[in-house]
Amino acid sequence: MDYTDRLRRLAIDDPRFVNEVFCGPGAASQELDPKTLALVRIAALVAVGGPVPSYGALADAALDAGATAAQIVDVLVGVARVVGQPRVVAAAPQLGMALGYEINAALESPSGA
Questions:
Q1: Which end of the chain is more exposed for a tag (fewer CB within 10 A), N or C?
Q2: What's 110's DSSP letter?
Q3: How far apart are CA 35 and CA 107, in angstroms?
Q4: Can you give the residue range of the structural domain that contains 86?
Q5: Cα dist. 6→15, 84, 85 in Å?
């Protein structure tokens, strides 16, 4: 199915296609590689202010797909102008924790390390 057909089915809220996108094999992108898709999902999570546990799951998925921690943080920086400072500031500690970096502890340390 080409992109125009997929877009049309989403626009008309085709129940079978939407169900496949959200629940079935269509949940994976047909054009994006797993790493890019995982990074896009992190960007979307930041944009909507998603729940804390999702950061860990999506960061793990991105790392498993070959993304680096630096690339994941670059996503946060990359969406900053679009989603705004409050979303990025709120997401930073959650993303840090998902990557194994305790930002709050680092902020309490006089050296910042």
A1: C
A2: T
A3: 30
A4: 32-113
A5: 12, 30, 33
Q: What tens-digit pLDDT sequence spans the chain (113 residues)?
A: 788 888 898 899 999 888 888 777 656 667 889 999 999 999 999 999 999 899 999 999 999 999 999 999 999 999 999 999 999 999 999 999 999 987 777 777 766 55
Q: Which residue has the tokens 């129940």?
A: 15
Number of domains in the chain: 2
Please give the model's pTM, rounded to 2 decimal places: 0.80
Q: Do 23 and 75 belong together in one domain?
A: no
Helices vs strands, H then E, count in the chain:
8, 0
Residue 96's identity, in one-letter code, is: G
